Amino acid sequence: MSENNIERISGRAPDELRNVSIKAGVIKNADGSALIEFGKNKIIAAVFGPKEVHPKHMMVSNRAIIKCRYHMMPFSTDTRKRPNLSRREIEISKVIREAVQPAILMENYPRTAIEIYVEILQSDGGSRCAAINAASTALADAGINMRDLVAACAAGKVNGQVVLDVDDQEDKTGEADMPIAMLPNKDLITLFQLDGNLSKEEFDRALELAKIGCNKLYNLQKDALSEKYFNENNKKEDEE
Amino acid sequence: MPAVKKHRIVDAITLDSIMSKLSDSKRTDGRGLLDYREIEIETNILKDKTNGSAKVKIGDTEVWAGIKVETAHPFPDTPAEGVMTCNAEMLPISSQYVEPGPPDEDTIELSRVSDRGIRESGMIDVSELCIKEGELVYSVYIDVAVINEDGNLFDAVAYAGTAALLEADKSKFTIENDEVKMLEEREKLPIKSLPISTTFAKIGDKIIIDPNADEQEIASARLTLVTDENGKYVSAQKGKPGGFTFEELKELSVISKEKGEEIRKMIKEAVNNGA
User: Fold this and answer.
1) CATH domain A20-228 topology
2) What digits encode the pLDDT tens for the residues B55-95?
3) Per-residue pLDDT reduced to its tens digit, B31-52
4) What is the average pLDDT across B119-144?
5) ipTM score here?
6) Is domain B22-274 in CATH 3.30.300.20, yes or no?
7) Which of A75, A210, A216, B240 is deepest in the core (most CB within 10 A)?
8) Helix or strand or coil: residue A214?
9) pLDDT tens digit string along A177-219?
10) Please, are residues A143 and A149 in contact by the beta-carbon 8 Å criterion?
């Protein structure tokens, strides 16, 4: 990075992520699940399915349907959030579903539903990206056939500087936020949103940065899955 | 959280003709891949009750926008700023696939994306909409109704909303002895920018602009990019369960700016003619 960096509130470098940890298989009753801690975000995603479609008329004869609900707990925000789904949550549920759907081999599960539940327990900036990483890990944990994992990360502009992974504090004072999700193997962007103010150069730079961030998240997801399935210590515990 | 709902049905013949034309980089209505349909913009069409109005047609898509400027309490975290909201509504007359009732997730997305375009561009200077700090501010309601649906609602709603705003006015006020008095005299809204939305759709490996209803239905992915007159990108939204590559996004960001310039001129001209 260039030398004339502007100090970020959090003290991070412009291309530095917040602390991220992902743990696969945290909900026993779900077919697949993951807990992600992304900065102050604390999010659980759980996957059920492939299962019977309800209501039945939503069934599709040659593929699975994907349902997704992004929901914030009333205690997850600074001031209490009303428990029912807001318009924002409905829109985010839709964009998360559309971001992970291209990765799922839906044609392998005709006449079924795959349900993704995202519960925000504590929110920080970038919760939709964190949620996609958790949902993707949970889908893989559920053994759903996938083309690739879906990695997500935001880039943005704060104090005139293009930075990776905008947090809540930066989002409030910053000039732009651009969340992105991608299938890293296929180089395909499946979530793309922007609000703020970016020049063409900043737009391209933010895309590049977000891509770097996505690749880091991709590796963290793979680590979380290997930790659950290939770690010798875990295996022994299971046997006991 | 519906994943499958009553969708537009594109019959096999239409699908075939769209696909075979696209393989020659042509479209069924004779357009090139990056041509808009004819855009008609008319302002000041609902003079008696609205404070600003516009009708926009893009091909057979038709939307009407009405502005209401009222007064309200400011939000506690922004005591010196006015309020603006943009809302889009799908009328049951607009298509056989639309039923009356609460908005579905597509309509909510449409509303929120049009709202973000106007809000993030700073089109309305909300700091100039303050009447009495912490007590009274102007609130600008932009309501857009979809009258007839033939694809690309994201652009149609954005053009109608912004054209109506350009033309809208509000009542002046005075403060006497600490008491606010609204006057009969009117003035224009504090407009600082004119954001323009452009929408693309990806069918197979071809990318088209301004998709009609059939093209939109069979597209794998959709992208709306909003630019302002300084060439800045102020808002974007990818829709539908497919994706774009990095190269495609960079390419489309350039096209979006060029098309935005042309359409910005059209809207300004229409507002001058209507006023």
Assistant:
1) Ribosomal Protein S5; domain 2 (3.30.230)
2) 999 999 999 999 999 999 999 999 999 999 999 999 989 99
3) 999 999 999 999 999 989 999 9
4) 95
5) 0.83
6) no
7) A210
8) helix
9) 999 999 999 999 999 999 999 999 999 999 999 999 999 999 9
10) no
Residue B156 near residue B162 (C-beta atoms within 8 A): no
> Which of B1, B234, B236 is the closest to A192 by Cβ?
B236
Residues, chain B, total? 275
Query: What does the alpha-carbon distance between residue A24 and residue A32 come to, in Å, rounded to a whole number?
Result: 8
Residues of chain A in Cβ contact (below 8 Å) with chain B: 58, 60, 65-69, 87-88, 90-91, 93-95, 97-98, 101-102, 113, 178, 182-183, 186-200, 203-204, 207, 211
Please answer whether residues B14 and B211 qualify as being in contact, where contact means their C-beta atoms are separated by less than 8 angstroms. Answer: no
Interval A136-147: pLDDT, tens: 999 999 999 999
Where on the phi/psi map is residue B231: left (φ > 0), alpha (ψ -120 to 50), or beta? left
Considering Cα of B43, then B45, then B51, then B53, what sign does the dihedral take?
negative
- Residues A115 and A54 sit within 8 Å (Cβ to Cβ): no
Amino acid at A107: E
Per-residue H/E/C for B101-159: CCCCHHHHHHHHHHHHHHHHCCCECHHHHEEECCCEEEEEEEEEEEEECCCCHHHHHHH
Closest Cβ–Cβ partner in B4, B231, B236 for A65: B4
Q: What angle do CA A68, B211, A196 make, to 5 degrees?
A: 60
Angle made by CA atoms B210, B238, B83, in degrees to the nearest 5: 90
Interchain proximity A195–B120, CB inside 8 Å? yes
- Cis amide prior to B2 (ω within 30 degrees): no
Cβ atoms of A191 and A210 within 8 Å: the answer is no
Residue A2 has pLDDT above 80, yes or no: no
The pairing of beta strand A176-183 with beta strand A151-158? antiparallel
pLDDT band per the 50, 70, 90 thresholds, residue B3: very low
Domain ranges of chain A: 20-228
Strands A113-122 and A65-72: parallel
**Alpha-carbon span A127 to A80, nearest angstrom:** 17
Confidence (pTM): 0.90
Cis peptide before B103 (omega within 30 of 0): no
Interface-testing mutation among A91, A104, A214, with chain B (most B C-beta atoms within 10 A): A91
Give the model's pLDDT for residue A238: 56
Contact yes or no for A196 and B120 at CB 8 A:
yes
**Per-domain boundaries in chain B:** 22-274
